[in-house]
Amino acid sequence: MPFSREASAGYLANHMARLFEKGLARRLVPLGLAPAQFMVLLVLWREDGLTQRDLAERLDVEQATMANTLARMERDGLITRSVDAEDRRARRNHLTERGRALEGPATEAAAAQNAAALAGLTEAERAALIAIAAKVIATMRRG
Amino acid sequence: MPFSREASAGYLANHMARLFEKGLARRLVPLGLAPAQFMVLLVLWREDGLTQRDLAERLDVEQATMANTLARMERDGLITRSVDAEDRRARRNHLTERGRALEGPATEAAAAQNAAALAGLTEAERAALIAIAAKVIATMRRG
DNA sequence: ATCACTTGCATAGCATGCTATTCAACAGGA
DNA sequence: TCCTGTTGAATAGCATGCTATGCAAGTGAT
């Protein structure tokens, strides 16, 4: 049996993710924001002042990846970083005014992208997609 | 209503795709192969001698992305590239012996990764995931 | 106190992906 | 033929992501 891209969950996940990211990137450009930066903001809007390690854990990316993303966010004026008083190895990441102000428009952009992507699905299909994807993610994180 | 990563199809797609790619990369390392190279091989095993433009279209990536991937594949001895006799702008991409020989083991690696990822799902859930993902992809490609 | 281990970050090097630009080769019409 | 517009590739520059290292700052046991 030939291996078929079209029926491979891994290939479809990759393709779907690329299209999502491209669409989100386009919607975030006017805000001066990139997709990975938006993910970090999603966390900081709820819990400001987290460390790099905290952020990497919550978004399940490697520490080195987060280090680079945070450096770009600092460069772009979205966050400031200050050495922790208790543990001088750690740096606390805080939202700037600009970073805080983007919550409304950036969230709308992301919601619009999700809506556009899921436009052809029924409510049941949307729920199924989310539930099944969450299961697959859980399986792979354990394995 | 707060925007929730956990219930965002875009976020889940990204997370799922990263985990798939990481797992596949690990399984392909012993073969000296990277995930994007495997995708190109999947196409060439069926249709050898395609141009860069052909490959980019079939995998839905930009021409520049494909140019870089093909350069790495040539460097790694997976393909050779020759100028097309009819159209001297175009270059035909041909599998090497090594590229051809990897079909079996690489396909097995990818199948194993898919199986591991979907291990927690029922047959119906697997079918649903693939069908719904394909629909979402179709929607985004049009939009 | 000292030494070994752990932990938080930074950096190097690489693969993928994108947009934008450039160049050479082709194709079609004036 | 010549000029224009299109098309196939290459390249530059950047964002994300990964692994592997290295360093400084904690921690704990002796």
TrEMBL record, chains A, B:
SUPFAM superfamilies the record matches: Winged helix' DNA-binding domain
SMART domains per the UniProt record, alphabetical: HTH_MARR (SM00347)
Annotated GO MF terms: DNA binding; DNA-binding transcription factor activity
Keyword Isomerase: no
Residue intervals of the HTH marR-type domain: 6-138
InterPro entries: HTH_MarR-typ, Tscrpt_reg_MarR-type_CS, WH-like_DNA-bd_sf, WH_DNA-bd_sf
Annotated Pfam families: MarR
Keywords: DNA-binding, Transcription, Transcription regulation
Transmembrane segments: none
Gene3D superfamilies: Winged helix-like DNA-binding domain superfamily/Winged helix DNA-binding domain
Name of the protein in its database record: MarR family transcriptional regulator
